[in-house]
Amino acid sequence: MTIQGIKKDSEARMKKSIESLKGELTRLRTGRASAGLLDHVQLDYYGAPTPLAQVASVSVADARSLLVTPWEKNLIPKIDKAIRDAGLGLNPVAGSDNVRVPLPALSEERRKEMVKVVRQEGEGARVAIRNIRRDSISQVKELHKQKTISEDEERRAEEEFQKLTDRYIDEVDAVVEAKEADLMEV
């Protein structure tokens, strides 16, 4: 393993941490409708748990509601039940050929609770990124111990990993701030 290889691996893992954070934050409901809100909803489709997106199209009807149009009409009751059981606090309205999902307005108290959850998710991502830095630095120290790199190279690599870590932690902060602003917007 070379310093460059360790750096590429670390950067790829840090990017995955950011993507994971964005995925987790997509699940949190803001006051605005987003088709991503139902990404994690699963329903029973011929005996197999299936993601909603594979059996229906999910679109934003307006700022406060989603429209789920199944490809098979007999799935409407199952989609209705799956959304109710998903733990999102939503009450879908089944129609003859689609399911409308109105999004209730968030109370101030609920918004503040969600901001706390966003901050916890952000802290989790920061910890993951710092752990990646720690692993990378220990790999570089191991290379130095094996005498494959010099002390100067080791120190330079540690500085590079710190800069990389700072950059990704700043990105986490930006993602968290954007989500907080989105949540607090009335």
From TrEMBL:
Cited NCBIfam families: frr
Claim: Protein biosynthesis is one of the keywords in the record: yes
Family as reported in the entry's similarity comment: Belongs to the RRF family.
Protein name: Ribosome-recycling factor
SUPFAM superfamilies registered for this protein in UniProt: Ribosome recycling factor, RRF (SSF55194)
Natural source organism: Acidithiobacillus ferridurans
Coiled coil: 140-167
Compartments in which it is found: Cytoplasm
Keyword Protease on entry: no
Gene encoding the protein: frr
Chief location: cytoplasm
Function recorded in the entry: Responsible for the release of ribosomes from messenger RNA at the termination of protein biosynthesis. May increase the efficiency of translation by recycling ribosomes from one round of translation to another.
CDD domains linked: RRF
Domain Ribosome recycling factor: residue ranges: 21-184
Keywords: Coiled coil, Cytoplasm, Protein biosynthesis
One GO cellular component term: cytosol
GO function term, MF aspect, one: ribosomal large subunit binding
Listed transmembrane segments: none
GO biological process: cytoplasmic translational termination
